[in-house]
TrEMBL record:
GO terms for molecular function: DNA binding. This is HTH iclR-type domain-containing protein. Residues 1-20 are annotated as: Disordered. Residues 25-76 form the HTH iclR-type domain. It holds the Pfam family HTH_IclR. Residues 1-11 have a biased composition (Polar residues). One of its GO terms (biological process) is regulation of DNA-templated transcription. SUPFAM superfamilies: Winged helix' DNA-binding domain.
Length: 113
């Protein structure tokens, strides 16, 4: 091996190695977005989440733990993860229900223009 770090990319063009320059927030949303990939599987292993999100497995492990702690993902008995009700609402476009009332009103006004 040459000692150089290789840099893989996801289909969206995001780096998936140590050279990944996305912010932590971008990686968190990439993990959540992994559940929107066209698939009949709703629960994913850490490896599958890592692959779909283009995030290294160790980082995926840490960030998924944060999603679970926050309540955005739930861990099944078999070790797979699935979106919680909060995340399902977010993923299905029902974001407005998660927003503060003043944000809901502003969003509704913008949509009516």
């Amino acid at each position: 091996m040459s000692g150089k770090q290789t840099k893989s990319t996801t289909p969206e063009g995001h780096a998936g190695s140590a050279g990944d320059d996305r912010s932590v927030a971008a990686k968190l949303f990439a993990i959540l977005d992994a559940f929107t990939a066209p698939s009949v599987v709703t629960a994913l292993t850490l490896t599958a989440i890592s692959h779909r999100a283009g995030v290294p497995l160790s980082t995926t492990h840490r960030l998924v733990a944060e999603w679970v702690k926050w309540g955005g993902l739930t861990r099944q008995d078999d070790g797979r993860y699935e979106p919680s009700l909060i995340s399902c609402r977010f993923l299905s476009g029902e974001r407005i229900r998660l927003c503060p009332r003043n944000t809901q009103q502003r969003f509704a006004n913008e949509r009516s223009v």
